[in-house]
Design a protein that fits this description.
The chain is α+β, with helices and mostly antiparallel strands. Helix content is 40%, strand content 17%. It has a single domain, classed as Glutaredoxin, CATH 3.40.30.
Length: 142
Amino acid sequence: MPLLTEEVAGQLKEEFARLVHPVRLAVFSQALADPESEQVKRLVEELAAVDPRLSAESYNLVLDKEKVEALGIQRSPAIAIMGAEKDYGIRMYGLPSGYEFGSLVEAILDVSSGDSGLSEPTRAALKEIAKPVHVQVFSTPT
C-alpha cells in the first residue's frame, strides 16, 4: 500500500510543476536496526516517482561509509536534499510527517530553484559571518 494517496500525489504534481532543476534525494537507513528507516526510504521513492526531475538514491548508514562521510550524515533515517550538481547541505532526520512533510517539499523546491528565498539584507548579513556555523532546527509532529 502506497504511503502517498492519489490525492496527495496529485497535489505534489502541481507543486513539483514549479521545479526548475533536477533534485537528488539520498536516503540513509538501517532497515534492520530501525523500522522507521524503511518508511522514509519508501516515502522518498514515492516522491521521486511523482516527477521525473526528482531522483531517489538509497544508502545503508553502516555499509556505505564513504557516502555517509562525504555527505556528513550523522544518524538514520536521513534524507540529503541535493541539486544535480550542488549540495546545499540540507539534511532531514527522521520520518518527515505532519508539518515536516511540507518542509521536505519546500526544501525540494528551494534546492531545485537554487534560491533560498532570503532577502538581500539577510544575505548581506550572512556574508559578514567569518567562520562556519552549524544550524539545526528541531521539530516534533505534535
